Amino acid sequence: MSVIIGGGFASGQEVLQFFTHFGLWGVAGTLVAGLLFAFLGMQVARIGTQLQAHSHKVVLNAIFGDKLGSLIDLALIFFLFGVGVAMLAGAGSLFQEHFGLPKLAGGLFMALLVSLTLCLNVQRIVDLISAVTPLLLALAIVLVTYALFRSDTDIETLNALAAQQQDRAAPNWFLGGVLYASFNIAVGFPLLAVLSGGSTNLRNTTRGGVLGGLGLGVLILVLNVGLFATLDQIQGAEMPTVMLAKGLSPWLGWLMMVSLCCMIYSTAVGMFFAFSARFADPETPKFRLISVLSCFVGLGLSFVGFTTLVGTVYPLLGYLGIALIVGVIVYWWRHRHA
């Protein structure tokens, strides 16, 4: 959950474009995405555990075969690194816009933090990135409760306002839910495959995949409701969640900005972990060397700009995610009686 939250939830802008701008139908879109998350999380976790996967490539080859699996693996490696670079760029932008510091300071701070984290053992890495989720869930509940009490705009007006929005990420609410899930499953797939492959308890990993997927669905729903209830107040906001938090209290706004930094951190760790695990076994000197080098190469590339990176990497990753969804469903259908 924490890995996906940083890439797909951090600013609230993603939820706004994929769901909120469809009005009340956006709620149905969140249900579609939540169910896909739960199903796909369960299946990827099961496959990873059954194959005792040490790399996401093992799972890809099982789903797509060696040749097609290798092609998808190459694409996924590229995009994993790209999302990691985007997170470093995002840290730079966050430090510049909200803390008044140079972009280099934010990017360097995040690169150092991620590098140090990846030098720890796997369980410590999981513990650190998992710590972000409860904070965001608590903040989301507080924000939505506040938004519902503060909003005095009727549903018809909010629906009309949503209908006027031009920056929807999909032509309809159903496709919005599918595309949102496809992008995020591509982000979370590599780490989920590797972590589940490190366990022999199929029941636990299956349950973790389902609960993680349902948790993401609940979080999308909660954020979507809060954003929809205050749609008339967050027009033009690049980070609507921060705007909502600042509207409630200045200290809560700062807390939200710190949590955004934590979410960026969790996704960056997940991306560079999965990227490095593709070339070396975790907790080995080679893995640590690749992790540190990839982080600092990524820091150099991050100066291309956060907006440019997101606009380039994310849409392409969404198409790759659709291929993963189709592949997982076909694999499940073929092995459903096994």
TrEMBL record:
<dbReference type="InterPro" id="IPR038377">
    <property type="entry name" value="Na/Glc_symporter_sf"/>
</dbReference>
<feature type="transmembrane region" description="Helical">
    <location>
        <begin position="74"/>
        <end position="95"/>
    </location>
</feature>
<feature type="transmembrane region" description="Helical">
    <location>
        <begin position="208"/>
        <end position="231"/>
    </location>
</feature>
<keyword id="KW-0812">Transmembrane</keyword>
<feature type="transmembrane region" description="Helical">
    <location>
        <begin position="22"/>
        <end position="42"/>
    </location>
</feature>
<feature type="transmembrane region" description="Helical">
    <location>
        <begin position="173"/>
        <end position="196"/>
    </location>
</feature>
<feature type="transmembrane region" description="Helical">
    <location>
        <begin position="251"/>
        <end position="275"/>
    </location>
</feature>
<feature type="transmembrane region" description="Helical">
    <location>
        <begin position="101"/>
        <end position="121"/>
    </location>
</feature>
<protein>
    <submittedName>
        <fullName>Membrane protein</fullName>
    </submittedName>
</protein>
<dbReference type="InterPro" id="IPR038728">
    <property type="entry name" value="YkvI-like"/>
</dbReference>
<keyword id="KW-1133">Transmembrane helix</keyword>
<feature type="transmembrane region" description="Helical">
    <location>
        <begin position="316"/>
        <end position="333"/>
    </location>
</feature>
<keyword id="KW-0472">Membrane</keyword>
<feature type="transmembrane region" description="Helical">
    <location>
        <begin position="128"/>
        <end position="149"/>
    </location>
</feature>
<feature type="transmembrane region" description="Helical">
    <location>
        <begin position="287"/>
        <end position="310"/>
    </location>
</feature>
